[in-house]
Design brief:
Elements: H1 2-14, E1 16-18, E2 33-35, H2 36-49, H3 75-92, E3 96-107, E4 112-121, E5 127-135
Antiparallel strand pairs: 1-2, 3-4, 4-5
Helix pairs in contact: 1-2
């Protein structure tokens, strides 16, 4: 009994909330929610996908990764993206501790940037990885000729 209660307390710390994007179940039209690790992963996605200053009451929420659209894909850009991700997660997701952020360009011609984030949950010390795909040439058909 004590083990189950300890596990509940550790997991409960990770939180729960609305699923993102917001959705409803088909059977009973209830709001879908997420819990624990999935809730944190969705929160990370939300932070990284949100443009800074887009929330009037929380102007620092978000990562501002959109500022890097159409930049030259080089080592400087990797450092700038890693810094933006680190800063945004440290300020907007207190339930995790960042261990590493690695930025890669698997498809330079297509403008794809992959951001690999290794983090641990503060309460449980469990390590997880998260890959956030980001397109530098968003919505274009540019060629590198």
């Amino acid at each position: 009994m004590a083990d189950a209660l300890d596990k509940y307390r550790q997991s409960h710390f990770l939180g729960s909330g609305w699923s993102f994007p917001v959705s409803f179940s088909k059977g009973n039209n209830q709001l879908d929610t997420t819990e624990y690790e999935r809730n944190i992963n969705e929160s990370i996605s939300l932070v990284l996908g949100t443009k800074k200053m887009s929330r009037p009451l929380q102007p620092q929420f978000g990562s501002g990764l959109q500022e890097f659209f159409f930049n030259k894909m080089d080592e400087t850009l990797k450092g700038q993206i890693a810094d933006a991700v680190r800063f945004s997660l440290l300020n907007n997701e207190p339930r995790i501790t960042l261990f590493s952020i690695n930025v890669e360009f698997p498809d330079q011609g297509g403008g794809l940037v992959e951001i690999h984030i290794e983090y641990g949950f503060n309460q449980t010390n469990t390590r997880h990885n998260y890959v956030f795909p980001f397109h530098v040439n968003e919505g274009t058909n540019l060629s590198l000729t």
